[in-house]
Amino acid sequence: MPDDSAVTTEDHLLRQMRDQVIDNDLKLIQAINSRLALVARLRSYKEDRGLDFVDPSREEWMHRYLQGANKGPLSSEGLTEIYGHVLELTKRETVRRA
């Protein structure tokens, strides 16, 4: 069985696909950072006005909206899982910024 690093240098298609995966990962990080900045502004705005930061009905609406927008191949269960993680991460990260 060939060494994976040897295959990488010889297999241009494999290298190209890996580069595309990395490019998408970088876009994910950029999108998450953008989301964090927006939510931090929202959190500050709501706190300045004495409003609760967490709005369970809004979170539920977003879950339904994203489920309808999801065309796959991400499963409904996968979307629920990843979005739940994003919400929890956003709540934690924006507390650190406040």
Attribute tags:
single chain; 4 helices; Chorismate Mutase Domain, subunit A; mainly alpha; 98 residues
Structure description:
Helix 2 packs across helix 4 (76-97) and helix 3 crosses helix 4 (76-97). 82% of the residues lie in helices and 0% in strands. The protein contains four helices and no strands. The chain has helices at 4-10, 12-48, 56-69, 76-97. By secondary structure, it is mainly α. The mean pLDDT is 91. The longest helix has 37 residues, at 12-48. The relative contact order is 0.09. The N and C termini lie far apart (52 Å). It has one domain (4-97): Chorismate Mutase Domain, subunit A. The protein is flat, with a radius of gyration of 19 Å.
Q: Briefly, what is this?
A:
The protein has 98 residues and is mostly helical. It is built from four helices and no strands. The chain has helices at residues 4-10, 12-48, 56-69, 76-97.
How are the secondary structure elements laid out?
Layout: H1 4-10, H2 12-48, H3 56-69, H4 76-97
Helix pairs in contact: 2-4, 3-4
Largest sheet: none
Q: CATH H level: which superfamily?
A: Chorismate mutase
Assigned CATH architecture: Up-down Bundle
Strand content: under 5%
What's the helix count?
Answer: 4
